[in-house]
Design a protein that fits this description.
Blueprint (H helix, E strand, L loop, with lengths): L1 H31 L5 H17 L1 H15 L3 H33 L1
Helix pairs in contact: 1-2, 1-4, 2-4
């Protein structure tokens, strides 16, 4: 079971390399062109939703096998998924903000 989870994690992260590169270019461009900060917030939201959408099959497989063994309800599973989405949004917003302000100062 753990081998399957690690395999899925490797597949998702391997496929996400291009996504990460594209995600990092957005805030640099927004800082370079001196766009408003709202663009960075929107970019972080869109990138996190795309990441959650692209990893839905892996999350579904992991949550089915893991939470049934632990005995969590569907509401608890949805709460975990929502907290994961919020965590990803906050993390991306912090990274994107740093890149936005650095690019704004350099260019």
């Amino acid at each position: 079971m753990i081998d399957l989870v690690l395999l899925l994690l490797g597949v998702v992260l391997g496929a996400a390399r291009l996504d990460v590169a594209l995600q990092l270019l957005g805030p640099v461009y927004f800082g370079y062109s001196h766009d408003p900060y709202v663009a960075v917030v929107g970019w972080a939201l869109v990138c996190s939703l795309i990441l959650m959408w692209r990893s839905r099959a892996a999350r579904k497989l992991v949550t089915q096998n893991t939470y049934e063994e632990v005995g969590m309800s569907a509401t608890q599973v949805n709460l975990v998924t929502a907290s994961l989405l919020i965590s990803i949004i906050v993390f991306l917003l912090v990274i994107h903000s740093i890149l936005y302000f650095i690019a704004g100062k350099l260019f």
